[in-house]
Specification:
This protein is an alpha+beta fold and 176 residues long. It is 29% helix and 50% strand. The protein has 4 helices and 7 strands. Strand 6 and strand 7 form a beta hairpin.
């Protein structure tokens, strides 16, 4: 079977048209991808800060401190908090760390205050005697990772860090 010149030209035009359509589709998909990634990058995200770290109580095993964290949620729906990870360091070494699973949710379009209890064993405090010195406090660095579940994006970690001084409990604190 022989194909005439007109049929060959028609098939060639169809082939070129298909290639151009695929290129156009590819460009359109690239533009859509860029648009979505730009919108996601410019989306507001929750913001957090450590507002206070203070002595809470003494037990037989440890001294407990309480970090207060303020988190603002720009969205009109509550956002679940997956977990909070913390690490308390003093004199260049970690003295306490842990994870608080499922601590609740962030209030919609509001600021939520979170309490993060940090327990430091007495044995660790005794090893920091040089840092404690005459002023009865320890220099610290508290690192927190607040892991929240954002719609569309997925798990998102808000890293926080604060340095300061924590007062150690006195005898009156232990018997109060």
């Amino acid at each position: 079977m022989r194909v005439g010149l007109g049929a060959k030209v028609s098939l060639g035009v169809i082939g070129v048209s298909l290639i151009l359509a695929v290129l156009k589709m590819s460009q359109l998909l690239e533009k859509a991808k860029n648009y979505v990634s730009e919108k996601v990058a410019n989306m507001p995200t929750p913001e957090a800060s450590i507002t206070d770290v203070d002595f809470k109580r003494v037990s037989r095993e440890s001294v407990e401190y309480l970090a207060k964290v303020s988190v603002s949620n720009p969205y009109s729906t509550p956002i679940p908090i997956c977990e909070i990870k913390y690490s308390l360091k003093s004199a260049g070494r970690e003295i306490a760390s842990g994870t608080i699973p499922d601590p609740g949710s962030l209030k919609a379009s509001d600021t939520t205050m979170l309490d993060v209890p940090v327990k430091v064993p007495h044995s660790i405090l005794l090893s920091l005697a040089r840092d404690i010195g005459a002023d009865w406090d320890i220099d610290y660095q508290l690192d927190l990772g607040l892991i929240i579940d954002l719609p569309v994006i997925g798990n998102f970690t808000i890293p926080l860090s604060q340095k300061g001084e924590i007062k150690l409990p006195t005898l009156s604190d232990m018997f109060a």
